[in-house]
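Course assignment 3, question 2. Fill in each field.
Student: A.L.
Task: Predict the tertiary structure for the chain below.
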Amino acid sequence: MAERSDRAPAQWRRPFLNWLDGVEAGWAVPLLIACFVAIWTLYLVVAYAGGGLHPDTLEAWTLGRHFAWGYHKHPPLMGWVAAAWTFVFPLSDWSLQLMAMTNAGLALFFVDLVARQFVTGHKRVLVLLLLMLTPAYQFHAQRFNANAVLLATWPLATWCFLRAFETRAASWAIAVGCTTALAMVGKYYSIFLVTSLAIAALAHPARRAYFSSASPWISVATGLAVLSPHVWWLATTGASTFTYALAHANGNTASSIGEARNFLLGLAAAMSVSAVLWVLIAGTRLKQFPADFAAMSSGLRLLLYIAIGTIVLPVLTSLVMGTDLPSLWALQGLFLFVVLIVCGTRYPIERFYTVNVTVITAGAALAAVLVAAPIHAVYRNNHGYEEGRNFYAQAANELTREWRELTGEPLSAVSGDDALAFATAFYSPDHPNYARPFEYQYSWGLPRKATLDRGWAALCFRGQDYCGRWMEWVSSRAGHFVRREFTVQASLWGRPGLTREVVVLMVPPRGSDAAPESAADDFSASRRAGE
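Answer field:
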C-alpha cells in the first residue's frame, strides 16, 4: 500500500509530498521547525494564560540580570541566554515562552545537521518528526533552565565532533572545543557528553588517524581556553556550583539502583510513542536490524558509541556515588538514538509513512492548542499550581502598590519565597533586584544592613511555614518594619479563579518619610488586592 500510494498519491497527500520535495532545496526543514515553534508557543500562551512563568524560567532571567562568569547555583549559560533575549524582546510571558520554544527549534535544527551527515531527503524530516513526538521539545523545553539549554548545545557539539573526526580540519577542531565548553557552562551534566566523545574516538577503528592528527589537541586547548573564565570564577568564589551539584549525591546502593532503573524507564517512556510509530513504519523489515547494524557506516558507529556513553556513564556514576538521576536530565540526548535508528536503515522508507507521521504530529499539536490548552488553563485557574504561579503578577503588583504608598519610592530589593521573589522582580513595574545572594539562597539569613538601609521587602504565601518562620525572625531583628497581608485572586480571560493569601514584610529606606512599625507593636493589615 505504501509503494502504491507513493506512485499514485491521494489528492490530500500532494501538498505534503511537494513539501518533502523541498527538503534538499533547503526550505522544507526550516518551515517545519518554524511551524513547530509557532504552534507550541501558541500552546504555551493559551495553556498558561493567567498562570505566570515557571519559577525556573524566572530564575534564569534573574541570574542573567547581572553578567558573571558563573553563578552560585547553576553554570551561567541559561542566564546569559535569558539576558540576551530580553535585551531584544520585551519582558512578558509570551516573550520568554517564545524564547523557550526558539531554543527547542534551534535544537531541532542542530539535530538536522547531524542527520544530514548520513541521509538525505525525507528521512531527515522523519528524524525531526519522531523527536517532536517526544515530550523533550515542548513540555521539557518550556521550563527554560539549565537542563533545557542542553537541548541545543548537545546536538551542536556532536555535529562539530563528527565533522572534526571526519575531516581533522583545525576549524572543526576549534568548533568542538567551543561547543563542548558551551555545553559545560550550560550544565555540568555535559561532562558525560564530553567523556562520551572521547571514548567514542578511542573505540573507533580510525582512532589512530584521529589522535595522531592535531585535531583532538586543538579541541582540548580551545575548550580549556573557552572555559578558563568560568574556571577562574570557580577558583575565586569557592566553587559553590559544585557544592550544589554534589548535594544530589547522598543516596545509598538501594536508592541508586532505584534511580538507575527509573532513569532508564523514564527515557523509554519518553520515546514510547516514537518507538511504536517506528515499529509500524518498519513492519517486517525490523528483521533486517542485525544486518543493518553490522553494515553501519563509520560515522554512525561513532554516533553509536557516543549514545551508549551518554546512558551508561550517568548510570555508573549514580551507582558509584549515590547521585540522583532523574530521566529529564538526559532528554537532550534522545536525538542520538533517533538518528541511529532512522539513518541506520539500509532499506528505503516510503514517503507514505513520512506524510502519515507529519499528519499525526500536526494533529497532536493542533489538538494540544485547540483542546488541551484551554482545558488546562481553566483547570489551573480553578485549582492552581503547587508553586502558586497563578498569583505571581497579582502579588508583585499589589506589593509594589503598597510599597509606593508607604514610601513614595520604587521598590529596589525583594526576597522571601524564591518563586515569589523571582516573580516580583519580573512582574513588578519597578523590577526590584532579588536581594538574597545566590550563595545563601537556601540559608535564610538576615538581609545585609546595606540592603535594609536602602529599603527591602519580602513576601511569602500564607501556610509556607519555613518562609513564615524566617519572616518572624527577620522582623525581630530588623528594628523597623511594616507587615501586611492581602489576598490575591487568579483570573483567566475575565473569569475569577481561586484565591490565596500573601504575607509581606516591608522595611522602608532609612531616612524616608514612611512610618514603619517597631517589632514591639507589629502592624498587620488584611485586604484583597485591587480593592
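Instructor remarks: Residues 351-383 form the longest helix (33 residues). The chain has 23 helices and seven strands.
Grade: pending
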